[in-house]
Amino acid sequence: MELRSLGNSEIKISPIIMGTWQTGKEMWVGIDDNESIRAIKAAYDSGITTFDTAEVYGNGHSEKILGNTLRDVRDKVVIATKVFSNHLKYEQVINACHRSLKNLKTDFIDLYQIHWPPGSFGSEKVPLEETMRAMTYLMTQGKIRSIGVSNFSQALIEEAARYGRIDSLQPPYSLFWRMVETDAMPYCLKNNITILAYSPMAQGLLTGKFGPNHKFAKGDHRFRNKLFQPSNYNRVQMALDNLLPIANANNITLGQLALAWIISQEGVCAIAGARNAEQSTQNAETASIHLSGHDLAEINRIGKMVTDHLDDDPVMWDW
User: Fold this and answer.
1) In angstroms, rounded to a whole number, what is the distance separating the alpha carbons of residues 193 and 162?
2) pLDDT(127) > 90
3) Number of domains observed in the structure of the chain
4) Phi, psi dihedrals of residue 18, rounded to the nearest 5°
5) Which long-range contacts (CB under 8 A, 24 or more apart) does 65-70 make?
6) d(Cα 134, Cα 156) in Å, to the nearest integer?
7) Are 13 and 50 in contact, with CB atoms under 8 Å apart?
């Protein structure tokens, strides 16, 4: 798998990144630790070198599974994690980083990210200057190699960048959710900030596995996803019907089509979750898929059947 540069750092990342929110189990159903371990190993064996997690995923459980699974190949992989919005004071950031280092069984974190802006989810609105001061300190100490932000607007990225180099933005971004294109993406491209698209398959919607009458099991957070609400869901199903012939013509799955479209966008890599080894392998195979210009344009047009009807709220869930 051909690697790409992470922002202005010396770090090289895979265009397909394995996301491990589901590995934490909390807010998901039907997740098995042994299957998660096999999925992580299959991702690595298939050429994925970059793995994304967060302290809040299962209160450290995701980090622990990832750290245990990758400890023997630590020098061959890039690990990214995040500090949550309730830990953004200077000492809290330092302590959170040390907890993550312990969970991940590593001496350093390749990419350390601010998960949500200050004040999110009722947290204290800590000045970004204070949070970034802790991040840059960790970098000087060799505890982290680069700094990223997640769910930030362009204005917030610009503010954070006044206090340290920002190498990545992690926004929700898929064919069905494209707010970043009109806000932060132009700024990121201009300043060589890599976009790490999370939910690039729209939390499974773009795989086509959810039919018109799908109901989520109790405890699955995706029932709050705006794309699954009746006001949008019919348009989603129509768009999927239009995308399927393109996927079939390229002998790939709908999920692979969605990932291939995302990583074809300039400066964008895709964070793709996987519950099992088969999904990891399918995700990794996407890196070698090359869609024609005609297909990309048609996929873009079909996606707008959904996105043209969404409001401007960048948060994908009704929390």
Assistant:
1) 14
2) yes
3) 1
4) -85, 125
5) 65/20, 65/23, 65/33, 65/36, 65/37, 65/40, 66/20, 66/23, 66/40, 66/104, 67/103, 67/104, 67/105, 67/106, 68/37, 68/105, 69/37, 69/40, 69/41, 70/40, 70/44
6) 17
7) yes
Quick check: is 163 catalytic? no
Given the residues 44, 57, 173, 233, select the one marked as catalytic.
Answer: 57
| Cα separation, 138 vs 83, whole angstroms | 13
CATH number of 20's domain: 3.20.20.100
Q: What mean pLDDT do residues 106-124 have?
A: 97
**Domain limits for position 156:** 4-210+253-290
User: Would you say residue 242 has pLDDT above 90?
Assistant: yes
β-pair partners for 51: 18, 79
Retrieve residue 160's tokens: 């954070």
Q: Which amino acid is at 129?
A: E
Would you say residue 31 lies in a domain? yes
CA angle 284, 39, 101 (to 5 degrees): 100
As to burial, measured by CB atoms within 10 angstroms (0-12 exposed, 13-18 middle, 19+ buried), residue 142 is: exposed
The predicted pLDDT at position 319 comes to: 58
Q: β-pairing, 194-198 with 168-170? A: parallel
Query: Which tokens is 271 given?
Result: 């964070």
Residue 303 burial (CB count, 10 A): 22
